[in-house]
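Student: I would love a firmer grasp of how sequence relates to backbone shape in proteins. I am handing you a single protein, as its sequence and its fold in token form. I am told such tokens are a discrete way to write the fold. I hope you can help me see how the letters and the tokens relate. Take your time, and here it is.
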Amino acid sequence: MKLTNQADGAATARVRVRVQYGRQKAFHPCPEAPNPQPVDVPPGRTVITDPARCSVPREPVPYAYQGVGWVVPANANAGSYELSPTAHVHPDRTIWKPDLL
């Protein structure tokens, strides 16, 4: 997940980030990061979450996956999310499509 703080002042964005994946029209928690994690994003900077925190073993049958990132202000209970392009993961290859779940 790529987070950008577009502020040009001295305000560091303090947010909580939950990275999940979508498969079979449902969101699933990432095994290594099941709970929201606090992240500080300095003004004018970009932070990228660690991709290793949301990986799952390849299945013996094809599945379509999407990454989903939830961003919630540090002092709030609700926020917004974005979906990645769809990855159609086969046992021997991955085909990327910009489809939604």
